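Sorry to interrupt, but I need a hand with the structure work. Could you write out one complete protein record for me, on any chain you like? Just paste the record in under my message, thanks.

. . .
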Amino acid sequence: MHLTNEPGTASQSERSVIHSTFVIERSYSATPERVFAAFADPARKRHWMRGDNTLELQELEMDFRVGGWDRIRYLHHEGNPFPGTAMANDATYLDIVPNRRIVMAYSMAIDGRRFSTSLATFELLPTDAGSKLIFTEQAAFFEGADGAQMRESGWRTLLEKVADELAG
């Protein structure tokens, strides 16, 4: 992400918001109930949302119910494109159907500067082999943000970590 423009400095010819939608489909060899639990249980979610050697999960608090929220905080370390910066992710749950669907609105910020706001939908469908997750994100990326390509890559990584959590 390139946070190059300060608020209010974009020229008249630059768009201040870039909209994007992407869909990721992922199969799991676990029932929809087990996949849903990986999102609903704070301890399980903390495990798959953990960072790596370049991204440290510092805080994950959640109130998993319609009208509830997530509060997630990371610190970027060396090897990350933004070493030394703090990232915040704040979400509100808009719709939850146990074992079937989670819809949330969330915003992300680096060092207190919001760079995107999204509507994210997780759909769970039973399959013969377990379940299929269909993740759809509709996002608005603000001045200077890299946009959907980086976000989609991040979600693909996280959904792979969900698979690891389910296998463990």
In short: Residues 18-49+94-167 form a domain with the Alpha-D-Glucose-1,6-Bisphosphate; Chain A, domain 4 fold (CATH 3.30.530.20). The beta strands are 17-28, 55-62, 69-76, 86-97, 101-110, 113-127, 130-142.
